[in-house]
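Lab channel / #folding
Pinned by the channel admin:
"Please post every new chain as: sequence first, then the structure tokens as a reply. Keep commentary short and put observations after the output so the thread stays searchable."

First post following the new format, from NK:
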Amino acid sequence: MARPDKNIVDYFPLWKPRQITENKFRNPDRKIRQNAIRNSSGAFIKRKDVREIVFYKDKNSCVLCGSMTNLTIDHIFSVYQAACGKFPLEKLNIRDNLQTLCGSCNSKKKP
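Reply from TO:
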């Protein structure tokens, strides 16, 4: 089977945490669960292909103010909400839950 063309707009990589990390996702202690999810998710959104796709989707600008400098990737529904079971974990790192924010808007965002 051919490898998907990363230039296709519909392509988005899957978040595939390691098994040992996934075991921590099921830990009864919310802090352990949240730290494992945050670390794994953070590594995923730092990937070059993920960043390029999210920035392209948002036209290389902050979705709140339109700034094109100091851009970051932010979860719309947070890691905390996923760790608490308020948001499905499998939807945490999909294209529709990631947005581009500038550093200023990201720091002003309410939890």
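NK: The chain is about 40% helix and 10% strand.
TO: also worth noting, The longest strand covers residues 71-75.
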